[in-house]
Amino acid sequence: MCVVGLGYVGVPLAVASAQAGFAVIGVDVEKEKVSMINKGICYVEDAYSEKHLPELVKAGLISATDSISNGATSSDIVIVCVPTPLNHKGDPDLSFLKSVAKDLSKNLSGFKLVLHETLGVDFIEAISAAATKPFGFMPHYPGPGVGGHCIPKDPFYLVFKAKQAGFLLRLVSASKAVNKMMPVHTIDRLAKALKTDKKSLPNATVVVWGLAYKGEVKDTRRSPSLELLKLLKQSRAKIRVFDPYVPRVMVGGKTYESSNSEIESVRDADALMIATAHNAFRTVDLSKIRSLMRDRPILYDTRNLRTRRECEEAGFTYLATGRP
User: Fold this and answer.
1) Distance between CA atoms of residues 244 and 212, nearest Å
2) Which residues are catalytically annotated?
3) pTM over 0.70
């Protein structure tokens, strides 16, 4: 494995890769960094790398060079970890990345696996990776919106009071805009998926599982599900709902009665949206649910309760919040 760029990302990655059994060649244009790595000296502030780098260099599992040609030609995998800073205008500066890509193009003979990351990142996997950090981490997971009696409302009393005192809490206000946008984003993504299968939202039957604002409760106050129902109605979709805790909800003057069961709710439906993290939705037999639905059904898991693999093996087109 060749790691290009021996900074705060590259060094720990090289150490972790060597720990996993790869022989690692690190590449950096700074000769001093190369020399320090080859002496087993860790210059990045990372306890994991400081502990393991010396022993891995001594064992011959990590070495470094300032020649990308030497690193790339003798490796099967190339991972690029060069800086991607902002320029003086605040725009992305990709000059380091472009320079490495140009040099790599001259040195990729035979099969190579090259990793530059682009959009399309699985946000849930990114959170899981971040959770391996031993300190200073609190996970926040994406969903179809924010509900409940406090979070959608209480912070804005603080915003209001702060504004009276002459300053703006911009981050709190920005979070409100993002949270308000999520139901719209969710329905737009569903519409695009249906269109890909030559279906349309106005003619589709969409089932929403979960009316409460969070799992294992019957509280529907400011639930994102209510906004999803409003948007689906505006899109002229045929709507069914099911919630094991909530018998009915009223949205925009219309009452939605919960089906008696998951099975009853999905018959001949085109799409199923999991909108609340009820535990029952984590274990329901997806193959049985799929068998009752129409051709090429969509399962949109807005709460990431089910895996892509189990949904696709059951025969669903899979969508999930935060996942490409």
Assistant:
1) 10
2) 150
3) no
